[in-house]
Write the C-alpha cells for this entry.
Amino acid sequence: MSAPIPARPGRLITPLEPASACGPIANLQAAATGQQSTHAVLGRIEAAVASSRGCLHDANEDAHSVLRDPGRLFVVADGVGGGAMAQTASRQLVSHLHAALDACPPDADRTRAAMLDADRAIAHCIAQVTDSPGAATVALCAPVNASASKWLVAWVGDCRVYRLAVGGTSRLELLTRDDTFRHLGELPPSGGSLDDPARMVGNGATSGANVALHGLDCGDQLLLCSDGLHKYVDIEAGTRLLKRPVPLLQRCEELIALARTNGSSDDATVLLLLRRAGSGTPRLRWLARWFGSVDERGARS
C-alpha cells in the first residue's frame, strides 16, 4: 500500500459543504472531507475517515472521532433525521463517549454505562432548547489488548461495522445487527417503517449498547459507517473498493462517491481501520498507561 497520508487538522464534525454536494460525481468526491493518521499501538493501526453532507440537509448531521495519535477509540454517529437538533445529538454523543472511554480500554460494562450516560446527557441538552426529542445512532470500535488483535465493537441503531479479512477471496463481513423494528420484532410508530432504527441514544430508546468482541489479524480492515453509506453500497462493490492498493483516505472517499452515484442523498460517513504489522519500538509508556504493565513483546502483565 501507499505510504500513510499525514493527518489533517481534526474537527469533530465536518464543516458545512457547498451545494455542489448533490452535483456531479467529480464534485462529490471533492466534497467528502476527511483525514488519515497512523496510531502507534504495538500492532500499528492506520486510520482514515471521510464524511459528506447529503443534499437533504443544510448541515452534516453525522459525527466522527477526530483522528489523533495515539488513538484509543473510533466512533461514527448519525443524528436521526426528523429528530430535534440532530447535529447536536451526534456531536455530543461522540464527545461524550470519548470523555467516558478514552482513559483506559473499554469493556462491555463501561461501554454500556457510557451509552446510557450519553443518552441522559443528550436528552438534557436538547430539552434546554426544545420539547421535541432528538437522538443519534452510533457504532464504535476500540482495541482491548496491546497488539490490537482483539477489538471491542459496540453499536446502537443502524450505524454499522464491517470487517474485511486480508485473504484474497474474503469479502466484507457485517459484525453488527441493525436495531430496527424488523430485527427486534417490534411495531414502528404510525408513519414509520419496519427498517427504521428502534434504538437510539438521546431519547431514552436504549438500555445500553450492543457489545461484541472480534479478532483482527494483520492486514485486516474494520469499516464503520452511517446508513447514508451502507444502504447504497453492496458487499461486493465495497469489498472491491477496500481491496484497491490506494491510501485508506482515498478508499473512504471512493466509497462515499459510490454511494452518491447509487442514489444516496443522506449524510454519509465512513471510518476505516487497518491493522498493520508493528514496526519499530512501541511507545511502552503509553501502552503501560493504557493496557497496564507491558513488556517489550507487548504482553500484558
